[in-house]
Amino acid sequence: MQPVTLTRYLVEEQRAGRIGAELRQTISVVMRACTSISVAVSKGALGGVLGEAGTGNVQGEAQKKLDVISNDILLEANAWGGHLAACASEEMDHAVPVPDEYPKGDFLLLFDPLDGSSNIDVNVSVGTIFSVLRCPEGHRETPTDADFLQPGRQQVAAGYCIYGPQTMLVLTIGHGTHGFTLDREQGVFVLTQRDMRIPASTQEFAVNMSNQRHWEPQMQAYVGDLLAGKEGARGKDFNMRWIASMVADVHRILTRGGIFIYPWDRKDPDKAGKLRLMYEANPMGLLVEQAGGLASTGRARILDLQPEHLHQRVPVFLGSKDEVEAAEAYHAKTGA
Ligand code: P6P
């Protein structure tokens, strides 16, 4: 039987009336860009692409060469893609409208071109995260940052491509979350995990414990009880994983469950956490909720948030439904 490729999956979804031709083609353009990024990432030192680019981004972070290369690959691919009004990226201060000389469309594409890039030089999995929104009516010719400020529930597609031992693209168009593995010899993504489901309960959490002293009391109480194990309030032992690459940690959770946490910490209180709402928390939140999990700030569901600016940061608790709800219960207590 012929394998179901991502291209075939998207055509079948279009035939079933679940997406239009323009969104199908937009996702196909992102897929091809991710294949190019996978080639660049896998070359490592042989491609002269490791190390710093010598530039910084709007986040105040030093850019890796591959951050810039990946961002350029996505911008160039989508300029000719023909169905976008504008792109926005972790690596760019403001949204970039598709230039007038290129074909335009009604979608807005956001991406973190290479999330986890601090791991590149030590050969740990990294990935591209992307989110697709509709451009507000009448704004196609003059899109601005404000047009992107839509709650995550309004995403029409979201996904990531993880560059690990396998290159995999995980996608939702609002009808489940599905995993596609890159067959490098054929140059196609093949459906290998249809309808990924996150178990409701878990005994595995992911957080950077070195920030523990900076957390608010409710977070300290919650993690303290995870660490107390079966002798503690939770009555069961927990394991911990932290890859420090969101795409890799979330992929593990989509594959076997768990809870991923990047909470608010007082190291930089006005940032409200490290992760960005528009092109990290929202796309990952949609993928997780489409797989039966939950995505929360600890006090509100991420996909319901009304964004205030393009590079807004939020606390993130996502993964197994029962565990995210348990974390929310701790955060509902005033003062812990
Ligand atoms: P820390 C990578 O830089 C990233 O944005 C996410 O991919 C990852 O989950 C997090 O930051 C890691 O943060 O503080 O552990 O380095």
Provide structural commentary.
With 336 residues, the protein is of the alpha+beta class. It has two domains: 6-193, 2-Layer Sandwich (Fructose-1,6-Bisphosphatase, Chain A, domain 1), CATH 3.30.540; 204-331, D-Maltodextrin-Binding Protein, domain 2 (3-Layer(aba) Sandwich), CATH 3.40.190.80. 30% of the residues lie in helices and 22% in strands. It has helices at residues 6-15, 21-43, 65-79, 145-148, 217-228, 246-256, 277-290, 321-332, and strands spanning 52-56, 62-64, 84-89, 96-97, 107-115, 126-134, 157-163, 167-172, 178-183, 188-193, 204-206, 239-240, 259-262, 294-296, 316-319. The strands form three sheets. An eight-stranded mixed beta sheet has the order 4-3-5-6-7-8-9-10, sandwiched between helices. Strands 12-11-13-15-14 form a five-stranded mixed beta sheet, sandwiched between helices. A two-stranded antiparallel sheet has the order 1-2. It is globular and about 60 Å long. The mean pLDDT is 94. 6-O-phosphono-alpha-D-fructofuranose (P6P) binds next to helix 6. 6-O-phosphono-alpha-D-fructofuranose (P6P) is lined by residues 115-116, 118, 208, 244-246, 249, 274. InterPro entries: FBPase_C_dom, FBPase_class-1, FBPase_N, FBPtase. It catalyses: beta-D-fructose 1,6-bisphosphate + H2O = beta-D-fructose 6-phosphate + phosphate. Substrate binds at residues 115-118, 208, 274.
